[in-house]
Amino acid sequence: MSTVQDLSVPFSGRSRRGAKAVEAGEARGWSRVPRELAANPRMTVGATIILVVSALAVFAPWIVQHPPDAQNPVYRLAPPSWSFPLGGDSFGRDTFSRLLYAGRVSLSVAVLSMAITVVIGVLVGALAGFYGGWIDRILMRLTDLVLVFPTFFLLILTVATFGRSIALLIFMIGITSWPTNARVVRAQILQLRQHDYVTAARVTGANDWWVIVRHLLPQLIPIVIASATIRVANNILVESGLSYLGLGVQPPTATWGNMVTDGAGFIRQAWWLVGIPGLAIFVVVLAFNLFGEGLRDFLDPRRRTTR
Amino acid sequence: MRYWLNRLLETIPLLIGVSVLTFLIFRAAPGDPVALVMDPTMVSEADREAVREDLGLNKPLPVQYVSMMTGMVSGDLRSFKSKQPTMEIVAEALPITLIVGGAGLLLGLLVAFPLGTLAARKPGGWVDRFVSVSMTTSLAIPPFVLGLVLILFFTERWGMLPGSGIAPIGTVGFAGLDSVPYLVMPIAVVAFSPATILARYLRDALGSVLRDDYVRTARAKGLSEPVVLSRHAIRNAMLPVVSLLTTLIPVTLGGSVIVETLFGLPGLGTVTTRAALSRDYPVVMTTVLFVAVLTVMTNLIIDLIYGWIDPRIRVQ
């Protein structure tokens, strides 16, 4: 799927420094991550926010005072108070509680669909890049096809056909968003497969699968993580957009998107009903983007110097 | 000429692929497809059989596919809510989507150009930093939240702009320029993130071009800075910006669903969402296909522009 997120900064290929490190057989990436985190404020800020938000979502049942769906008419559109830290919504439900529970849904949808994207993207990209020829041509045509398909309209089409369900949402977001990941992986594999150690592995009798899985893919892990992180950010936006339209996660299950929809009707009296979930989406998406872009720049020093 | 022709031919398998996929999703629907395409009030078995006959559901899949496609073009495929041919519905909704999307992208370009150029002229300066930060920020703001914030201030608080209620183009209530205020906020929302992304791309591209030898030569010849920029640097820097449009256009079309719903604009997005929610299947299918065709076509046009800016591409 073509999305704004993919545009942020394109991969400009593996750096010269990186290529040298690869040739030298240095296990790059992992050992430097902690040091780089300290030197790279974007990654640190992103990672911190991601961890805090994830913790809030995971431990939501122990944090909140009211169940997310419990209605208490007294607190209808209520301002923040001790009992309702972020006020009440139009049904008198605890906004704070709903926000955290929505985080569980929004984050799991985004992460699970990202997992589908990564699996398909890596598989398609690796096969296309490694084999080239007609396999490459067919797979890249398929990639073009998915890229061209108006994702949002496609999602609406499937919802219209199969009805709303979280599983379908995860599946559809996942299988429409892999093309950019596939292209990234393919470009990397195209470069890596020319190295001598690949030929060496072949000479020792390793079959294609072994070369791809043991020699090529491990080197892509950092870059795949970077693009996967940005993918999560994008998936949160897609899910919230669909939920906002009433085509995503079905109420009363809260997601940040449908909380905005619920609040939109009361924007004059209680703007925070839109503002709070809106801010949540903004902060979390920003955090994933900061982390992903930071990691990506770290992997490509050429980009770092242009900043 | 050969190049254009080849590019045109290459889009055909893409279009066929998109339409087959759309068709297959429809056919993959659980249960009797008649239930999907039929008005729930038509319950008699004779009616069902009529619909089945109408859709050619007794025929093999490829035949069904072809008849659905021809039905779409000829207008035999109709909405089962309004009984209007789906193509007519699309034709009515299209102008507003094109106006808002086109004007939004144009506004984005107009904002991005000065910003990107200024940022590239002074790397590390405050404009440069603003461009970088604003892109990262704008990518994280969901368009519906941005739109609601605009509505809160410009409509609810200050009463400056109408939040919704535009009359469809071609209807009695539609009155040319009077409809413009309805479009201001939607266009701003559409333009918002493309503006920042384009600025950032232009800054990156222009920044590296400005360091090229030929630019130094142009300056050494004594050409003024505006001439160096406009005649020499920008043209080369435009390539990545133009190719970025191939990604921005489908994103904008997709975003139109949200923007139109938010501001109550009767465009393709609203039509699709409404039809999806009421399971008006033929309409959804037609709009999805139409948007796909639109995307493929704009991609083609951008490729042509690309080849025009940089003749080297045509040779390959």
Q: Can you summarize this structure?
A:
The complex is a heterodimer of chains A (307) and B (316). With 307 residues, chain A is mainly α.
Walk me through what this model shows.
The complex is a heterodimer of chains A (307) and B (316). Chain A is mainly alpha-helical. Chain A is 72% helix and 0% strand. Mean pLDDT of chain A is 79; it is low at 1-27. Chain B is an all-alpha fold and 316 residues long. In chain B, 77% of the residues lie in helices and 0% in strands. Classes of the chains: A mainly alpha (307), B mainly alpha (316). The interface between A and B is large, with 51 and 61 residues.
Features:
heterodimer, A: 307 residues, disordered N terminus, B: 316 residues, mainly alpha, flat
Provide the fold topology.
The complex is a heterodimer of chains A (307) and B (316).
Chain A: H1 4-7, H2 16-23, H3 33-39, H4 41-58, H5 60-63, H6 95-131, H7 133-148, H8 151-162, H9 166-176, H10 179-192, H11 196-203, H12 208-245, H13 256-264, H14 272-299, H15 301-306
Helix pairs in contact in A: 3-4, 4-6, 4-14, 6-7, 6-9, 6-10, 6-12, 7-10, 8-9, 10-12, 11-12, 12-13, 12-14, 13-14
Chain B: H1 2-27, H2 33-37, H3 45-55, H4 61-74, H5 86-121, H6 126-140, H7 143-157, H8 180-210, H9 213-220, H10 225-263, H11 268-277, H12 281-309, H13 312-315
Helix pairs in contact in B: 1-12, 5-6, 5-8, 5-10, 5-12, 6-8, 7-8, 7-10, 8-10, 9-10, 10-11, 10-12, 11-12
Low-confidence stretches of chain A: 1-27
| Average pLDDT over all residues of chain B | 79
Q: What is the oligomer described by this structure?
A: heterodimer
Strand count, sense and closure of the main sheet of chain B?
A: none
Number of E strands of chain A: 0
Q: Structural class from helices and strands of chain B?
A: mainly alpha
Q: List the total number of helices of chain B.
A: 13
- SS element count, helices of chain A: 15
Please tell me the overall pLDDT of chain A: 79
Number of strands of chain B: 0
Q: How far is the first residue's CA from the last residue's CA of chain B?
A: 13 Å
Order of helices and strands of chain B: HHHHHHHHHHHHH
Radius of gyration of CA atoms of chain A, rounded to a whole number: 22 Å
Quickly give the structural class of chain A. mainly alpha
- Ranges of chain B with pLDDT <50 over ≥5 residues? none
Estimate the global geometry of chain A from the Cα principal axes: elongated
The two chains with the largest interface, and their residue counts, are: A-B, 51 and 61 residues
Q: Which percent band covers the strand fraction of chain A?
A: under 5%
Span between N and C termini of chain A? 28 Å
What portion of the residues of chain B fall into strands of 2 or more residues? under 5%
